[in-house]
Amino acid sequence: MDTLTLIRPDDWHSHLRDGSALTQTSADMARYMGRVIVMPNLVPAVTNARLAAEYRQRILRSMQTTARQFDPLMTLYLTDATSEADIREAAEIDWLAAVKLYPAGATTNSDAGVNSLEALYPILATMEEVDLPLLVHGEVTDQDVDIFDREAAFIGEHLAPIIDRFPKLRVVLEHITTRDAVDFVKSAGPRVAATITAHHLLLNRNDMLVGGIKPHYYCLPILKRRQHQEALRGAATGEDRSFFIGTDSAPHEQHAKESACGCAGVYTAHASLEFYAEVFDELAALDRLEDFASLRGPDFYGRPRNGDTVQLRRVDWTVPATIPLGDSELVPLRAGETLHWQVVDAGAP
Ligand SMILES: NC(=O)N[C@@H](CC(=O)O)C(=O)O
Ligand SMILES: [Zn+2]
Ligand SMILES: [Zn+2]
């Protein structure tokens, strides 16, 4: 198989950032993604519908072309101060897709995140009532918990109780990295889903740490051992429709990653579908890519599948060494390396 035509995919977890970064990040996303769930971890955070509307306008204004519909779906950043009114207002807006939970201190720009999840149970009850999904960065932040165990600990300590207490709340465990997460999502039924990034499918912690530390592979949740990577590969290419695409493409300037204290986040928006194709090809599962990238996400979110297609071809091409990011630049995943699939027809520009 040398060409592959897919219903246009969407990206159900992405960081576009703001200001001059949007020129690059929006263009990379809009090249072939239909809808993008835009993460709200700006500084200051996107905590209510008004801020989300303003951010969405900045994204749309940054687009070079509006010929094809590129649909940014926004999220609200859950804080200790989120009110029931914030949730009810958000639920009325079609382009406002979900509410995002960052445990305070868990990841990039999570300082404004949640300190006590239990204190927010009344807010989760409202979300359940109005059917606004909860998206979760699922890691505990206790200093005593090893960084490689933080996702599994979160599932047991926080996610399982939420699922039990709010039986109708739709939940997406974002960017899963462990077999524990795969098993949990499988056992939790169709209202609990998970996104899987391309880099967690492509890489494990040996890639990051053996033979020298690779700061451009550092992200959160951190890459895990190979057995966990294999569980993610099994989930992405398997039968369970709860697992779908979410790139977690997260740009940081080159100097901020190549630093004594490097930022967490991997940029994949320049070739996200190509990366997934590479993994699915390696697993002889290219026939499953459309379900993962284009069908399961809209089905979970209760939104229509896209009506047009994109085409990939098996062809060697080289990823640029750097990509502009505002006045600076970033180092994209697989910078300077050869990829074997390329989107050759992205539909209308
Ligand atoms: N994944 C990351 O390592 N970083 C993300 C934040 C996040 O998704 O946790 C970012 O915003 O840079
Ligand atoms: Zn996250
Ligand atoms: Zn993210």
UniProtKB/TrEMBL annotation:
Metabolic or biological pathway: Pyrimidine metabolism; UMP biosynthesis via de novo pathway; (S)-dihydroorotate from bicarbonate: step 3/3
Keywords from the named record: Hydrolase, Metal-binding, Pyrimidine biosynthesis, Zinc
CDD domains, alphabetized: DHOase (cd01294)
UniProt-listed InterPro entries: Amidohydro-rel, DHOdimr, Dihydroorotase_CS, Metal_Hydrolase
Superkingdom of this protein's organism: Bacteria
Chain residues that bind substrate: H15, L16, R17, N41, H137, L220, H252, A264
GO molecular function: dihydroorotase activity
Modified residues (N6-carboxylysine): K100
Cross-referenced Gene3D superfamilies: Metal-dependent hydrolases
Residues forming the catalytic site: D248
A Pfam entry, by short name: Amidohydro_2
Co-factor(s): Zn(2+)
Binding locations of Zn(2+) 2: K100, H137, H175
EC number: 3.5.2.3
Record's cofactor remark: Binds 2 Zn(2+) ions per subunit.
UniProt catalytic activity: (S)-dihydroorotate + H2O = N-carbamoyl-L-aspartate + H(+)
Entry binding sites for Zn(2+) 1: H13, H15, K100, D248
Listed PROSITE patterns: DIHYDROOROTASE_2 (PS00483)
Amidohydrolase-related domain boundaries: 50-176
PANTHER family assigned to the protein according to its UniProt record, in alphabetical order: DIHYDROOROTASE (PTHR43137)
Role played: Catalyzes the reversible cyclization of carbamoyl aspartate to dihydroorotate.
Subunit relationships: Homodimer.
Family, per entry: Belongs to the metallo-dependent hydrolases superfamily. DHOase family. Class II DHOase subfamily.
The protein's name in its UniProt record: Dihydroorotase
Organism: Congregibacter brevis
